[in-house]
Amino acid sequence: MNKLPEEFLKKMHILLGEEEYQEFLNSYEAPRKFGLRVNTSKISVEDFKRLAPFNLTPIPWCDNGFYYEEKDQPSRHPFYYAGLYYLQEPSAMAPAAILPIEPGMRVLDLCAAPGGKATELGAKLLGEGLLAANDISASRVKALLKNVEVFGISNSFLMNETPAHIAEQFPEFFDRILVDAPCSGEGMFRKDADVAKAWTPDKPEACAKAQKEIILQAAKMLKPGGIMLYSTCTFAPEEDEQVIRFLLETCPEFQLLPIGEDRPGLFSNGHPEWAKDEAGTEREELALCARIWPHRQPGEGHFLALLQKGEAEDVAETKEKNEISQESAGGRKGGRGKAGKGGNKPIGGKITKAQQAILDEFFQDVTMPMDKSRIEVRKDQAYYVPEGTAGCTGLTFLRNGLYLGELKKDRFEPSQSFAMALKKKEYASSINFSWTDERVFRYLRGETVSVDDLPAGRSKGWQLVCVNGYPLGWAKLTGGLLKNKYLASWRMKL
Question: How high is the pLDDT of residue 328?
């Protein structure tokens, strides 16, 4: 067991009482639990269970989540590179599992990196509507971009902004918002010894100050009738029940919703007594919050609160901004961009006749459902932007929509992210490996491989390379050899 901070242990002893504290302490002696979450936008849970060679046990609070055994090594499996699942701490699956999402909604993950929750929200949207995901850290948002691309999410808008700046652009815009707030990380102590070493007694209060600002900005962006889920991976009441009490008192149009009614026995209730005001009064509705405790459920721990926004009597009517600016539509090959001013002008300008001819030639082999009017070309980079992306300006972003590829003189080079968004049947020619074929590992390492024994739609040219029918990337076929086009930065290490 990692050495736990003494002040943290004293605090938990007071909060839990003698008997439960001992159970909590004993849980740190148990082995860690490892989890994977199936990407249901690519494969059904039942199909995955039949296909995956892992030792899987269902995670009760996530219908598409499973515990696996450390010996399975799923991060080394080709299915991981095909985006069929995300490796995630089991407790951390709960927020995105609980937030109700339907295709076509506008959804915001406000503190999204590295993308564990955002990828699940995007999978639930099935390519319809909008997934906006943000992180204030420029380095972490790059990991978010990769995970969104591996999952094949085509309708994302990835930002690197402050919540306040986003709120200026999106008043009462989103149907659903997830705030998995930066926190003191007390639920990560067993997983990461460095988090425990960095903890100090005053850290929860400092985090709570930032969390209150974040949740207020999120409240501004949620539509009346919309639902927000607030979560942390910490046990500190200052960052949990007390933040929710602050929101309810500051924004009385919000009310808590019950969690886990259809998951009997899974969640222990929140603790109203942990959020008393100065007069010592409780807010009984805080019992509707939920906690995953490491000594009660197999996971590292999480706090969750599900809230719905009603009409605020004292808030003036706000004209809803229905569209994100096409000038927000940027980021070249994962680079950063800034949305500029100028109303609804597309920042890429018109697609030239020459560019259109090149795109038409390539896309005659693509049957993926697409609204071709939403394809934009900016500096020879082609993007498929989410529907209705016009209307706001000034945001720093990494990517808007799906990066399709690059136009080069007289040809089109499709991108890795485009391959991941396709289904095998949606491209005219493919090479399909079994995951047991050693050539699939050679492909993932960037090697040229011989495939003259495998069928393809045509004898040369672009091929969508797949494993058991699920795309991995691109290659060019010539003379029975695959010239590898797998993205260098994604390649499997030896």
Answer: 39
Confidence band for 243, pLDDT divided at 50, 70 and 90: very high
What is the rounded distance in angstroms from the CA atom of residue 359 to the CA atom of residue 382?
A: 9
What confidence tens digit (pLDDT) does each residue in 32-59 have? 999 999 999 999 999 999 999 999 999 9
Do the beta carbons of residue 209 and residue 183 sit within 8 Å? no
Determine the pLDDT at residue 246.
97
Please answer whether residues 165 and 395 qualify as being in contact, where contact means their C-beta atoms are separated by less than 8 angstroms. yes
| Number of Cβ atoms within 10 Å of the Cβ of 159 | 28
Distances in Å between the alpha carbon of 131 and those of 149, 158, 244, 256, 306?
Answer: 13, 8, 25, 24, 19
Phi-psi map region of 346: left, alpha, beta (phi>0 left; psi -120 to 50 alpha): beta
Question: Taking 70 as the threshold, does the pLDDT of residue 266 lie above it?
Answer: no
- The CA distance from 407 to 362, in Å, is 11
| Strand pairing category for 174-180 and 106-109 | parallel
- How far is it, in rounded angstroms, from Cα 483 to Cα 471? 16
Q: What is the pLDDT of residues 329-375, one digit of tens each?
A: 343 333 445 543 323 333 345 789 999 999 999 999 999 999 988 99
What is the pLDDT averaged over residues 170-188?
Answer: 96
Q: Supply the mean pLDDT for the chain.
A: 90
Cβ neighbors of 172 (< 8 A, separation 6 or more) are: 220, 221, 222, 223, 224, 318, 320
Omega of the bond prior to 163 within 30 degrees of 0, cis? no
Provide the CA 431 distance to its chain's centre, in angstroms. 29
pLDDT at 268 over 90: no
Distance CA 215, CA 225 (A): 17
- The DSSP string of 111-139 is T-TT-HHHHHHHHHHTT-SEEEEE-S-HH
**CA dihedral defined by 29, 30, 32, 35, rounded to 10 degrees?**
-160
Q: Is the pLDDT of residue 324 over 50?
A: no
CA dihedral 323, 138, 177, 305 (to 10 degrees): -170
From first CA to last CA, the distance across the chain in angstroms is 31
**All residues at 6 or more sequence positions from 364 whose CB lies less than 8 Å from its CB, including other chains:** none
Residue whose tokens read 């929101």: 247
Query: In angstroms, rounded to a whole number, what is the distance separating the alpha carbons of residues 295 and 323?
Result: 46
- Positions annotated as catalytic residues are 233
The structure's pTM equals 0.92
* pLDDT tops 80 at residue 460: yes
Q: At what angle do helices 116-125 and 138-150 cross, to 10 degrees?
A: 40
